[in-house]
Design brief:
five-stranded mixed barrel, alpha/beta, 34% strand, single chain
Length: 154
Amino acid sequence: MKTLSDPDRERVQPQPVETTIEALVALPRPVFLSPVARADPVEVTVYRVEARLLWLFTEADGDYHLVLASTRDTTITMIAEVPDPTCAGACASGFAKVYAQVRQKLLDYLNSAQSGARPLVQITGVGFFDYPHRQRGVAPNGIEMHPVLDVHFP
């Protein structure tokens, strides 16, 4: 599910839904999460949020881990992840080029003179409930945007 290479990927609605970090972290977490099926409606929805980018780092699996914060309250956070475009799941998804482009946009902006601390960012990605495992920036309900499909710096 994290790379859009799962059988349920065809159910993901491509039109982004504008929302906020506050709204996503307030969503109820399903009692049961299937290891093979997406949780309706959250995991079949593409969301777009405007947020503060607090951190970006590469995880052991090669994914870019982004910690996003509310533009109104930076203590309200959630995670967004951009898969490693060279991993088998990303390659199988047909989205490897998208992931590579998003990662390049992030690096180009963050390494530019116009980037400041905690830049404002617009992230578009698929809703995903992860299992909390002490991730930096994790939301109380485990909601993430994973995978990230687009990024802009307003």
